[in-house]
Amino acid sequence: MTKQLLFISLCFISFFGHTQDSLFVDLSSPYGSIRTHLFYLQDEHYDEIKAAQPFIQSGVSEELAIKTAIQLKQAWDGEGTYITMETIPKDPNYRDSIRNRNQYIINEHHPAILLVKQNDQWIYAKSSFAAIEDFHDEIFPFGTDKLLQLLPKIGTRKIMGLYLYQYIGILILTLLSVLIHKVFSVLFEEIITRLLMKAGYEKLADHFMMPVARPISLFVVILLLRIFLPVLQLPPDTSHWVMLILKALLPLFGTIVFYRLVDILSMYLEHLAKKTESTLDDQLVPLLRKTLKTFVVGVGTLFILENLDIPIIPLLTGLSIGGLAFALAAQDTIKNFFGSLMIFIDRPFQIGDWITSGDIDGSVEEVGFRSSRIRTFRNSLMYVPNGKLADSVIDNHGMRQYRRFYTQIAVTYDTPPELINTFVEGLRKIVETHPDTRKDYYNVYFNDMAAFSLNIMFYIFFEVPDWGAELKARHEVLMQILKLGNELGVNFAFPTQTLHMENFPGQQSLSPSYTSQDEANQKMAAFFENQK
C-alpha cells in the first residue's frame, strides 16, 4: 500500500511539475512570447527548445529557430540592451497604433526585429530572421562570436554575480589594452618621429605628433574593447552602462584626434602661405584653424550625444528655432562675418597695405572674423567692422605699381631761355638714369610764368614697393636737382617783392619806353626767322 501511494505521489508531482513548466511556454501575447524566449535561455531554466518556440513557424526548422533565438539573446546581452518586461503589452489582440497591425516592435533601435500575430499566437516575423543575423554580426564582428563557445568552458563558477570566465576575459582585455596602448605609443614616438625628423619636420614631430599619438592609441583600445567586450556576455544592466560609456568614449577620442590633426594641417597651410607674396593668406590660416576646430568639436559633440542615446533631432530643431532668433538679434555680427568672407575671397587688400576708405586711413594689421585692425599714421588703432569695409569704396595705396611725384621747380625771371632749356634737359636725364623711376612715361617741361618765378613742371613716377622706398627715391632725385642747378648756375626763385619809384630826383625815370608797332613787327619777324 505504501509503495502504491509513493508511485501515485511521484506521478502527481511529475504531472503538475510538467504542467507548471508548460505554463511558461506562452505565445498568447507579446509579453508571453518574449518572456518564453528569454526565460528559457537563463542559466537556471536553460531549455533552448522551449526558448525557440516563438521562432518556430512554417518554413522554419527547429534547428534554425534555436540558432536564431540564441543569436538574438547574445546580441542583446552583448549590446547591453535591457528589455523592460513591464512595458511589453499583455493584450492578445494588441495592435500597433501607428502601423495599425497586430505587430509589436521590441526595440526602436532595431525596428526590423518584431513580433506578429499568427493563428492566435505571437511569434517572431520571418523577415526578422535576417535582421537578427545582421544584428548579431554587427555586435560580434570578425567572427568573435566563436569565442562564446570557448569561454564558458574555462570556468562556470559564479563569484559576485559574474562567472569565472568573465573575470578571466576582463583580465585578458585589460592586459591586451595596456599592451596595445604601449605599442602604439612606441610606434608614434619612435618610428614616425624619427621619419619626420629625417624629413626635416622636427617642429611637427615635437609639438604635434606626440599629442596626437596618445589619443589614437586610446581610440584603438576603446575600439578593441567595443569589439571583444560583448563576448563576455555580462549581465544586461552592467553591459548596458559599460557599452554606453564605450560608445561615448569612441567619438570622444576620435574628436580629440581630429582636433589635434587640425594643428598639423594648419602648420602645413602656414608653410604654404609663407611661399606666396600675399600676406592675407597668412592671416587666413589662424582663422581657418579656429573654424575647423569649432566644426570638429560641434560634429564630435553630436556623435557623442547620439551614442549616449540622446535624441539629437529635437535638439537640432530647437537649435534651428533658437538660431533664427539669434540671427535676428545678431544680424550685424553675421553681416560682419560674411564681410570677412568677402574680404578673403576678393582680397581688396592684404596685411601691411596702406588703405583709405572714407575716414579710414592707415595700414592693415589684422583681418578677423568680425573686424579688421587699421594702424593710423597717428599710431592709433582703429577697429573697423568688416561689413562696413565690404560695402565701402577702398583705395588701396599698397597695390600701386607706380607712385606719382609731382612738383614745380621755380627759377628766377632773370634766367636766360637757353639755360632753362639746358636745365630741363638735365632734369630729364636725372629721371632716365635713376634706378627707381619709370622710364616710359614722365613729363618735364617749362610750363608756367608765375608771379615771382618761372616754373618747370616735374611730373614723374617711382617704381618702389612701399612708402619708405618712395621717400628715399624722392630724396635722391631732389638732391640731384639741387646739384644740377648749382652746377649750371640756375637760381631757384622764392617769393620776392620789388618797389619801383616812377620819378626820383637826380635819377632817370623808371617808366618803360616802348617801340612803335612797325619796329615791333620787324623784331617779331626776325625772331621767328631765327627759330627756323
What's this model, at a glance?
The protein is of the alpha+beta class and 532 residues long. It has helices at 2-22, 30-39, 48-51, 62-79, 128-139, 151-154, 164-198, 202-228, 236-274, 280-307, 312-329, 331-346, 386-391, 417-433, 467-488, 517-531; strands at residues 103-105, 114-118, 121-124, 158-159, 162-163, 354-357, 360-367, 371-376, 381-385, 395-396, 403-411, 443-449, 454-462. The chain has 16 helices and 13 strands.
Question: Which features does this protein show?
Answer:
532 residues; alpha+beta; SH3 type barrels; 4 domains; five-stranded antiparallel sheet; 16 helices; 13 strands; 55% helix
What does this structure look like?
The chain has 532 residues and is an alpha+beta fold. It has 4 domains: 120 residues, no CATH class; 149 residues, no CATH class; 68 residues, SH3 type barrels; 88 residues, Alpha-Beta Plaits (2-Layer Sandwich), CATH 3.30.70. Helices cover 55% and strands 12% of the residues. The chain is built from 16 helices and 13 strands. A 5-stranded antiparallel β-sheet has the order 9-8-7-6-10. The chain has a 3-stranded antiparallel β-sheet with strand order 1-2-3, with helices on one face. The protein has a 3-stranded antiparallel β-sheet with strand order 11-13-12. Strand 8 and strand 9 form a beta hairpin. Helix 14 packs antiparallel against helix 15. The longest helix is centred in the middle third of the chain and has 39 residues. The N and C termini lie far apart (168 Å). The N terminus is likely disordered.
